[in-house]
Amino acid sequence: MSEFFVQNAGSSQTLIFALVISALWGVEKLVLAEPMADKSRHAALNSLFILSALPIELVCSVACVALAAWVTAHHWGLLYLLPFYDSPWVKYGVMFVVLDLLDYVYHRTMHHIPGFWRFHLVHHTDTIVDASTTVREHPGETTIRNGFLFVWILLTGASFEVLVLRQTVQTICTIFAHSAFRLPAGPARVLGWVLITPNLHHVHHHFELPYTNCNYGDVFSIWDRLFGTFANLSAEETVFGLDTHFDDPATQNCIGMIAMPFAARAAGGAVPEGCAAVEPRLPAAATS
Fold first, then answer.
1. If 0-12 CB within 10 Å is exposed, 13-18 middle and 19+ buried, where does residue 45 land?
2. Cα-Cα-Cα-Cα dihedral of 171, 176, 180, 182, to 10°?
3. Would you say 259 and 250 are in contact if contact means Cβ atoms under 8 Å apart?
4. Least confident of 68-77, 80-89, 213-222, 264-273
5. 172, exposed or middle or buried, with CB in 10 Å at 0-12, 13-18, 19+?
6. Number of domains in the chain
7. pLDDT of 133-185, one tens digit each?
8. Containing structural domain, residue 190
9. DSSP bridge partners of 39
């Protein structure tokens, strides 16, 4: 069974992604009792990005498989500098943690390099964060993200098997982190010491600095704690969206969002360093 899953990783991961996001979206609808028309309209808008993501992901997946096979065959990368590199604990466990750290680096880079932020801000302009927000990714960012993955494979020597493990766990965690649910305070606090929960990722989607600069973690929250980018924010204080684009009609249609990185206003809001806690506020539109 596991061998079949690895050999058909692309289709298997696509199926897992579709099942998890559909199931969670359905549970959100039932539990939160949101109007079906509004929730469906929001999901339909975000889901249009799948049309651009799938071809890019397909091409890049083929390249990733070839690259992973090459580094494995040539013992290329940091993995092969470690003692007992062929041990499952090192090959899968250590490499999983290293790849998670590198995804933290990638995410933080997308926020702090203005040219990359132009594409990543499309994801942050969603004012209703739920499971469908997971797929709201500009094709430019999809390309950049896969470019970083190529570099990580060359740097680490990650095998195809650990990439499959990593992508599968990451898919489930990312969809869950974007869900509209928030965990109760007790479980959220306990899980948040190790993992990125929806409560923590919602902080990252708050509309203004410094919270946009917090909680970059993908699976583990330890990197944010270690590098000073960890923050908490209550549900009442959290407002989704992006302060530079609240009044931008482009956020309401797919073509507008595709063009958004090239608009003059995308240059604004390129996020400076820092995640120091400040008193959160509501956007002007919400207080008027």
1. middle
2. -160
3. yes
4. 264-273
5. middle
6. 1
7. 999 999 999 999 999 999 999 999 999 999 999 998 999 999 999 998 899 99
8. 2-287
9. none
